[in-house]
## 1
Amino acid sequence: MATYEPVLLANIGRENSHTREVYEQTGGYQALRKSLAMSQLDVTEQVKQSGLRGRGGAGFPTGLKWTFLPKDHPGPIYFCLNADESEPGTFNNRILMEDDPHQVIEGLIISCYATRATTAYIYLRFEYPKAYRRLQAAIDECYAAGYLGQNILGSGYSLDIYLHRGAAAYICGEETGLIESLEGKRAWPRIKPPFPAVEGAFRKPTVVNNVETAACVRHIMEKGVEWFRGMGVQPDPSNPRDPGSLGPKLYCLSGHVERPGCYEAPLGITVRQLIDEYGGGVWKGRQAKAVVPGGISMGLLGPDELDCPLDFAGPGKYGCLGLGTAAVVVMDDTVSIVDYLHNSARFFAHESCGQCTPCREGTSWALKILSRIKAGRGRLIDLQLLLEIGDGIGIIPGSTICGLSDGAAWPLKNAIRKFRGEFEEYIRKSNPSGYNNTEPVPAMPMESVH
Amino acid sequence: MSTERVLTDQMVAEIKAYFPRYPNRQAVTLPALHIVNEHLRHVPLQAVVEVAELLGLAPAQVQDTLSFYGFFKQDAPGGETRAWVCRSLSCALRGGEEVLEHMCKRLGVRPGETTADGKLTLEFGECLGACEYAPCMLAGEELHTCLDESTADKFIDSMRSSS
Ligand SMILES: Cc1cc2nc3c(=O)[nH]c(=O)nc-3n(C[C@H](O)[C@H](O)[C@H](O)COP(=O)(O)O)c2cc1C
Ligand code: SF4
């Protein structure tokens, strides 16, 4: 792994890496020229052949998603670049947009060309002001260079890209919440189907892709399908439906490590490799007690699960929800898992959009119960209540509209099932006279969630 | 209630500049709210009414969208600078909540409140997407990284002495 040369991060750290001039010095916009010389179907076919899976969290095959667009649609077709990046622990999109915005935009233009989109919106979270400035400057440079606007590079293809800023709501990252928000409404995710490819923004066919996905598209078109398929985890030959985990990935590493940061590696390195070989190990010479494998929504790995491979299938084998955003958060052996779970529950109670009762009520009850446990008024029976919430909310059990609630559920389920002893001990010690109580208890005065 | 108009000609022009970007005007809701908020540091109800008029919507539609996002304050203008201290996991593991508590004490405010001199509104934020620099704070357009009590103090002092 040590010999791997970063591709997505190749320009990061170069002086003026955000300018078109520097970007073009390293081959920038050659992939666009090459793509425009191909048919739109051929570009889609290349992306399909590459095996690229979306980097935004769900890992859906990108080329396949594009083929869901209705054929011969009169248009317009819209493209939404998902730059809402708000999954706790995740910051790779930010680095790409701030320090190499042209890479993102080149990938976006190619993706729009392949999907016949004529307008693209970059839905950017509000808290990324530097990315906003850098992207806008890059877009302006592209119009000046003829990479955007009418008749791009004489190809006959025309495209406009607009930046659209969010307003600090995690749910706007969910693709249909994003679309509702773009349309000027509250960001309530839609029931699917219809999927956005059929009926998305402004009721037109729409593709939503992540920033890193677009960056990968740029490199696939430049370096080819074989290059991309040459790294990562190959599809399981005995399972024709397994797309594998191919290509490079940007891993975000934070928490209790010596060198937090964004590291590029072929998909499939293990948690331990990421921490030790890239992150310089757990900080202060301590041991890892628990690790979030892919943004807090994905749940929790215990100390004996650090050989978990970080590919699309890996975390699932350890009871986690999935690879998510591949954002790894490390907790050392001084961390209280009660505190971790309270922090996670507070996030989801704050960010639930409130549309589905099981999610709205479940996340806020989980927080109330955890606040009470934390304050020394927990009962052993509360663990059962928390698991009931965890098992009951989400698309997977079928009770809610979007995946936010699955993301709220997984930390509850993993933490309590993998660290049950610690929760029980905490409750016994902090509430010696009441831990066995099964009577209803008065609610705690709530801390402010909002 | 006064019905004096609050949207200036400049704000209206800025909002209208967004019209060609979208196939309908409702999509200009968020950009419009951001524009008003940048100028007034809040979005009073009268501004909602005027934005709705510009966009051809019922005021309730704009108000509905506004109220979905905790981002836009309506009652009174926020401080000259708005600062969000991250309280999500990566920052919490490196002392983010303690920094926020320390700043609250020093400034005499609770999260969400504005200092008496009107210079700073201090808020908690959820993950600011800068976890490699935990704990962090976004103040206006500037990201403050790897905070501790002393760097937080320096920031507070620089706010106080700014004119
Ligand atoms: C609650 C929630 C939040 C999400 N946030 C993001 C996000 O910030 N960025 C992102 O790209 N995808 C996010 N997603 C996934 C999107 O719904 C969608 O799958 C993705 O943008 C598709 O792009 P991709 O195929 O390139 O990964 C989120 C999903 C859920 C359920
Ligand atoms: S699951 Fe939660 S966040 Fe998703 S739509 Fe329902 S209430 Fe909203």
Note: DSSP finds seven helices and four strands in chain B.
## 2
Amino acid sequence: MTRRRLPEWFLLLLPAIIVIAAVVLIPLIFSLYSSFTPYKLTRPSTLWTWVGTYNYEKILTDAKFWTAFGRTVLFLTIALNLEMLLGLGIALMVNKVTWGQRTLRTVVMFPMMFSPILVGFQFKFIFNDNIGLVNNALQSMGFNVALPWLVDGKLAMFSILFAEVWMSTSVFAILILAGLFAIPRDPLEAAKVDGCTPFQSFRHITLPFLMPFIYIAMTIRSLDVARAYDIVQIMTGGGPARRTELLWTLMSRTGYVDARMGLANAMGYVSIILSVVFTIYFFRKLTAARAQIGMEG
Amino acid sequence: MTEVTLSNVVKFYGKHQALHGINLDISDGEFVVLVGPSGCGKSTTLRMIAGLEDISGGEISIGGRVVNDLPPRDRNISMVFQNYALYPHMTVRENLGFSLKIAKKDEAEITKAVDEAAGILGLAELMDRKPAALSGGQRQRVAMGRAIVRHPDVFLFDEPLSNLDAKLRTQMRVEIKKLHQKVGNTIIYVTHDQIEAMTLADRIVLMQDGHIVQVGTPLELFNTPLNTFVATFIGSPPMNLIDGVVSGTSSIKLAGGLSVPVPASARGQVHSGQQVKFGFRADNLMPYGHAVEEEGERADLELTVTLTEPLGTETILFTDIAGTEVQGKMLNPRPVRPGEVLKFRLMLDKCHVFDATSTDAIRG
Ligand SMILES: Nc1ncnc2c1ncn2[C@@H]1O[C@H](COP(=O)(O)OP(=O)(O)O)[C@@H](O)[C@H]1O
Ligand SMILES: [Mg+2]
């Protein structure tokens, strides 16, 4: 009689399964569970009190949450579109350059090489109202102002947006540039012969070819939007007085400062919906755009 | 009236000179074929006429207007590309109508023109498909349709059939010829295939290494090639060439000792001791009993067949004369075994003599 043994494929996959379970599955299940408890980091025993959907109900009626939610959606929409347009512009220009293009391509990627924390500190300094570069520059140009870049709500949002766009535009630029390199030359020449001006060629041939690349960039970016947390946290920390509060700062404040982990996790699950919606939306667009130019299947 | 004139057109790619002073006059409604081995500058010439490549020197005019500095859209030409260059994101209908849409024609007019072109090319059932869902031959037809909807002054074709299989190629060749007879526009057609050139052209322009070697009707190039390059490029199988030396004024001693008279056309043009190449086509070397009955000076040769290529109505016979492999032709063929010795007749009136050093034809 032989002992029953685990199938070989399972044994081979086991290390991977264990790692995934440890770093993804268990935290996921734990955080989902804790969002149904009044779990406070300072009172661990609260983890065992089941409160059902109490946290979720609380969030849905919480004006602070919805303000942050709305601001985040607006922020993402503006940031992604701006990054896309700027990235497209940069890619088109780099594509035109014939001399030193490799160097230029590397330069375009520089912002991707910095840690978001560093970028945050950098812009915090640049936009500082006393010693910041921007105000100094304005003053030496003769404007006698000291704009409160990181204090005024609107200006602070602008400053954060600026830093975010500075850091992530290159993702779009690089992906769109890859798209430009992949465009077949023939249809562009056919379009010229068919009577297109350079702008018409761009509008009718180049752009449809680039759309899949643009949507890939959008999908990637909408997946990693949460990274913007670092920049916001460093530059304003969501303040002053919640004027730049985005979902990410709100969550970390609730979880780590107020120590209400259960509630923070519930917020996390609600805002995951946001990420998922953005991602699905762009993924749909991507599939459609690929079908459009005959790349599917 | 849309004549196309190239005068002294030169093209440099960096330091590399691709075209060396091309002169060509193409008259209205003419079907001109640029032919030559790959890399000889055919596409470059065509793309310069289209405006897709700058002109490094010389002048190109279309319909009497110098177009050197005009972008393609102002030249009123259509081009069919080797890889079809269809717009992959548009349906067949959109592909066909694109140029008219760009020209801001109204919907009804576009639909009418597109349907008409689709009718001519048999595309009616494919109108809503994307290029990816078409076969090679269908894509080819869409590319042609896209060219004809605009009613351009000049059609430019760059090896439009080279991606098709042999049967389809023959079929499309006929369609292109019909199209020309129907629309009557000036056509400039590029190919590396001499059969396409022979069958389609009103006039053939044979190019080599960025130069024009000979311009003429298909029969002129076939019957009076200017040099050995033309002689071996045009016609299938290529002209047989055998080295020889002129001896006296009226005979040529071929390598291997065989002696043939100087053909009438070259008499008085050669001098004793001149190194020459003696050329004749397979049609002039036929075995008795399987040859065309014709009058004229002839030489009789007993030759051993080394290889046969039966083509149905005729068989190509490989043999050798004085150590040089040559090809002859057998009409109403019977099976021939390699090694068989046949008695051939060589029609001397139709033979050619080329100078061995310059490779130019010697002709009175
Ligand atoms: N874009 C280019 N850059 C550099 N050389 C080129 C370019 N296009 C063609 N050439 C060169 O010019 C010559 C003629 O090319 P082409 O006109 O394409 O030949 P064909 O169409 O007769 O085969 C070739 O030697 C080719 O290598
Ligand atoms: Mg070519």
Note: Chain A is about 75% helix and 0% strand.
## 3
Amino acid sequence: MNTWTRELARATAAEWVKLRSVRSTWWCLACMTVFLVLGALAIGGGTVTELVRDGQPGTLSASDPVTSAAVFAQFGLVALAMLTITPEYASGGIRTTLQATPVRGRVLAAKALVLAPVTFAAGVVAGGVATAAVHLVLSAEVFGGRVTAPFAEVVPDLLSMGVFFALVSVTTLGLGFATRSSAGTLTTAFMLLMGVPLLLVMTGTSIGFEASLRMPLFAGLAFMGSSDTPMGGAVPYPASQGLVWLLVWTVAATALGHAVLRRRDA
Amino acid sequence: MISLNGLRKRYGDRTVIDELSLDVRPGAVTGFLGPNGAGKSTTMRLILGLDRPTAGTALIGGLPYHRIRNPLRTVGALLDARALHPGRSGRAHLTALARSNGIPLRRVTEVLETVGLGKAARGRAGALSLGMSQRLGIAAALLGDPEVLMFDEPVNGLDPDGVRWVRDLMRSLADEGRTVFVSSHLMSEMQLTADHLVVIGRGRLIADAPLAEIIARGSLTAVVVRTPHADDLAVRLGAAGLRWERPGENELVVTGATVEHVGDLAHEAGIRLHELRPREASLEQAYQELTADSVEYGARRERV
Ligand SMILES: Nc1ncnc2c1ncn2[C@@H]1O[C@H](COP(=O)(O)OP(=O)(O)OP(=O)(O)O)[C@@H](O)[C@H]1O
Ligand SMILES: [Mg+2]
């Protein structure tokens, strides 16, 4: 290992200790899981009821409503990501962090390197729990036996949800470094991830609609292949394009956070 | 060794540190004094690379802070004892710091024992008293066994035993050849701890000299002489250009002279002396005279 990777590995190990040693981390993960399960049951229940009522053919993969619910449950991880940085600015602990790791970009990288795998894993695990819950509850005969859990659909759904959560968390981290406050991070993250895209759709203009499609909300839903989205049906472009837009937002937020972190006094 | 060279810091259009140049040498405790708002904490932040200087450099062992590899093993600093996550345990806080700089984890236990925090470090840091947080902060500074130590008002909130412990700690760190740079407002404590003093006011250097020299500059430093021939001696002193006061019939207080000088003058004139001794001013007095013009946030002295 060369010096650069060794020092990054050390900073990352430190961030891992910090993440797991505060209770809020575990609270946020629990909240996200609860949101995801309840959201998936509500959305899945609605979809299945419609299928049955309208006498349409076809089945629903148990993981599909889970991916739709992910865009609500993501806020549990937004809080988690935010809490890895803004309390440091509030308490002045950021100065201790930068004393230990004075190369500033390395601090951001280390936090991202901890957050991304943790939130990816959390997405896969919580997604699995939610998928099982949907299957358990909605595959019953009263719902027409329309819900199935085919391996070939569930696995990619869970993986893409993990990636979506990881990217949203890193985006939030970037916003945290850029705004340096919990209030600023929550506001900007909510507007970026939910508020603005919904407002744009509500304008009813085609330009607003086109713009909202490129924001993380619909990009994420496209990437995860959800069939039930706030715009009615599925997002009208392929998953790969959704991933590209997600990455664009993640890189932009991270670059912004990095620029502020480098430029400003701690 | 810490070297500041033409250091300047502006916040907006306010110059807070102005042309600060000085060296903090190893093997000594260097006290860092100045009125509230003089720029002590800012200087320390500049040294640690937390704030970017407007001009000039702050180097540690010839390197800017961000160029030092595993800096906690070279520089230990306590800026603000309360600056940590209140929900994290003291031990986890130190563990994260140790991990970040490749410091063996047994050091965490060692420094916690050194500062006497063993058990308390398992609970939430937010539940620690101010003095205990201060001890945790000192533990963090000692963690990497560093060559250079910086403390911003370390005895703030400590009980008398703690104050004494910090004094002994600073002394022993300096005696081991380390560089110790410590700010404080407690002059009596500094007088007991420091070898060397740096005094700043409104961001400018006022004094950079050994403790003894700074105290000697105080106007209350004088030579006290008791003699049955005070009249004769007073004439001699006046002829030698020395200023004196005569608090009693047989007593003279001479300022601006050494004991040797006064003793020699008396001897040459054949004047019998009953007492000849230096009167030391306190650091407190000398400090107040040095900084009288640069106190920004002094309470107004009301006339009664
Ligand atoms: N981030 C900042 N932005 C603007 N002004 C600042 C900032 N940090 C410090 N100052 C100003 O710089 C001056 C020096 O502050 P500093 O905290 O360094 O003083 P100090 O000598 O440590 O004082 P004290 O003895 O009260 O701790 C003060 O006037 C303060 O208001
Ligand atoms: Mg200060």
Note: The mean pLDDT of chain A is 93.
## 4
Amino acid sequence: MAEPLLIVEGLRIAYGGIQAVKGITFHVDPGETVALIGANGAGKTSTLKALARQLDAAGGSVRYQGREISALAPHELVGQGIALVPEGRGVFARLTVTENLEMGAYCRHDKAEIADDLERIFALLPRLKERHGQLAGTLSGGEQQMLAMGRALMSRPRLLLLDEPSMGLAPIMVQKVFEVVQEVASQGMTILLVEQNARLALQVSRRGYVMESGDITLTDAAGTLLDNPRVKAAYLGE
Amino acid sequence: MDIFLQQIINGLVLGSIYALVALGYTMVYGILGLINFAHGEVVMIGALTALTVVKLLAGSGLPGPVIALIGLMAAAPVCMAIGYGIEKIAYRPLRKAPRLAPLITAIGVSIVLQNLAMMVWGRSYHSFPAVLPAEAHEVLGATFTDLQVIIVLVAAGMMAGLLLLINRTRLGRAMRATAENPAIAQLMGVNVNHIISLTFVIGSALAAVAGLMVSANYSIAHYYMGFILGLKAFTAAVLGGIGNLAGAMIGGILLGLIESLGAGYIGDITGGFLGSHYQDVFAFFVLILVLVFRPSGLVGEKVAERA
Ligand SMILES: Nc1ncnc2c1ncn2[C@@H]1O[C@H](COP(=O)(O)OP(=O)(O)OP(=O)(O)O)[C@@H](O)[C@H]1O
Ligand SMILES: [Mg+2]
């Protein structure tokens, strides 16, 4: 069994005096898609932000490829192979689609391969190709989500952190976004997927963690979680 | 003599200088949301540094433009270092403080720089040696000098270069991304602190050029000149739409024209009651009008940002 790509132990996050994440432990193996599901305010976004060094953890350790990364500067993370697609997409509204994608490759210097990857992303997300010269702020929500994912892929990550890719999208667009997630996963990408849409998230994942008010309360194979009566009642609306 | 054409020429020269200084305000505002009120003092230090070097070399037999260029090469690094230092020492520690704190600090930095300059250069006016070609040419009853042509052309060149840098290079893209969303830019691997430092350094380099221009154009420099010049350039930035590069350029040129034409005609307008030394009121009149009627400036419209 290979060493996990990411090992999180006892991670705590606090805002002021309030504990948002209360010492969670989980791991992600190379090549797998892992879902982190939970209700509003459970602490999912906070967890991803701590992994991407967007905020400082109050305690615990985050090891990636066997190395502690919780002391890295925020801008050093992407160079290590970790890319976050943030909640709410965070595209650069005043940059064009192509410029957004080029920003994804900011820390790379292999010009020719960046150009190849750009074509690959356009092939994966044809809607973006049609709109390559358009300002990202004028894209639809679904297109912006695609762009945010494409931008993250442009950094050639080894670990992709996705924060609620389905948020605020029409069902047809959610479907499309998840098709892309599955396509990327099938090419061997390691993905940590945060979602409120638990059913979809578990359907594309191998394993899942359930987070409730700052704690991980349940973990299992994704298929098992889908059949779990508690999960069904709380997150699948059955 | 055609006073209208003459004032247009003067206005373009003045406006080019305002535009270069306004860019410094607008770039910093675009990336930090901060008005760097000390920027005018950076221009002043650039002017005095360049003037001092030009004075030293004035009798050396070197051609005038070469002397001016050496003056600039001395002033630019000094200004860049000061710009870098201001950000690092005065603004960076306040990055997360309420907005009023850096504003007050900016005024404090202004006073410090002014006093430093006073200690180095004294309170007196320094005259800029006439090393640059100043013969007047005549067109249609108006006159202009080679120096004025050089000022306009160099300013235009610098602005074109800046636009290319910002809009066409990887670095410029990172600067625009950082201006829009520093947290996300950081996710892309952008060292936001570097970008912010660089913004101050570039703005200060432009300030050095403007300082040389203004002291050569008026043949004079002194420790207090940065205040009014800074305020006018700030007005130009607001007029164009603060945070917007093209806006700063347009606002600068426009303000130069308004001021020149205003100074040229104020005597006629007021029946001789006010003279051309009231030139400065136009800038502040413009500032008030813009703030009241169009605070976002002429080209300061935001792109629609959809969720
Ligand atoms: N910047 C902040 N300041 C203070 N409290 C915060 C901040 N960000 C998050 N919180 C709090 O931390 C807790 C966890 O928030 P977080 O955004 O991580 O939840 P989440 O699981 O991502 O929720 P959602 O599904 O709604 O996105 C919440 O109680 C929230 O109010
Ligand atoms: Mg969230």
Note: Chain B is about 70% helix and 5% strand.
